[in-house]
Amino acid sequence: MSLIFPSPENRCYCDEENVENCLKGGVRDMTPCLNAPIIASFPHLYLADKEYQSYITGLHPNKTLHETYVDIDPLTGYPLQGAKRMQLNMFLEKIDGVDILANVSTGLLPLVWIEEGLAVNEELLNKFGEAHHKIYMLKAATVAFIILCIIVALCALVLYLYMEKLFCFKNITSNRVVALFQMSWQKDKTDGVSKATLSTIPADSLYGDSSYGNRGHYPHQLVHRSNNAI
C-alpha cells in the first residue's frame, strides 16, 4: 500500500507512521536544525500551500518582493544584484490549561521575515557596459572578417574559372590541357627586327575532331625592333 503525502517534495522529512503531521508544500521544517519548533518559508508565505496562506489575514504574497533571486551577468558570470528572503513561522494550536491559547485554531503563524541583499554600484555597472560593448564589437568584427574572406574566396574562384576558360581548354577526348594560343619568335639578322607569330591552336587538337581541321591556324605577326642587331 502506497502512502499519500501532502507534499511530495517534503516526503523525506516525513514520518511514514504519522503522515497526517507532514507539512504541505512551500514550507520547510527547521526543528532538527534549530532545536526549536520553527517552520521556514518565503515572506508572506509566498509559494506556500493555500491552507497556510488563508490562516492569517493581511498576507500579500508577491514574486518580485518576496522571492529569493540572484541576477548574474551572462557574459562575465559576475553577480550584479540579489536578495535572500526568508520568513520564520511556528504552528499555533490550542493548548489546554493556557488561557491565551484556549480559543485558537491550529495553523501556521508568521513570526518575522528577513531580507539580505546586495547590488553593484553605478560605476561598476558602467564598466560592465563598456565590457559588453567591446565584446559585441569584437563579435561583429569577427563576423565581418569571415564574410569578407568568403567574398574574396568567391571572387578568386570566379577569376580562376574565367582565366582557365580564357587561356586554357581541356581536351574532351584525351582529357589533356592545351593552350589556346601559340607564339613563335623569328629574328631577322639583317635589320635587327624580331618578329613574333601568335597563332590559335587548330580546332581538331582542342576537340579531337577532324571535322574542325579545316580551320587551321590564324597567325598574327608582332614586330619588335631591337637596337642590337646581329
UniProtKB/TrEMBL annotation:
Its main location: membrane. InterPro entries: CD36_fam. One of its GO terms (molecular function) is scavenger receptor activity. One of its GO terms (cellular component) is plasma membrane. The chain crosses the membrane at residues 143-163. Keywords: Cell membrane, Disulfide bond, Glycoprotein, Membrane, Olfaction, Receptor, Sensory transduction, Transmembrane, Transmembrane helix. Pfam families: CD36. It comes from the Eukaryota. It is found in: Cell membrane. One of its GO terms (biological process) is sensory perception of smell. Belongs to the CD36 family. This is Sensory neuron membrane protein 2. It comes from Subpsaltria yangi. The lineage of its organism: Eukaryota, Metazoa, Ecdysozoa, Arthropoda, Hexapoda.
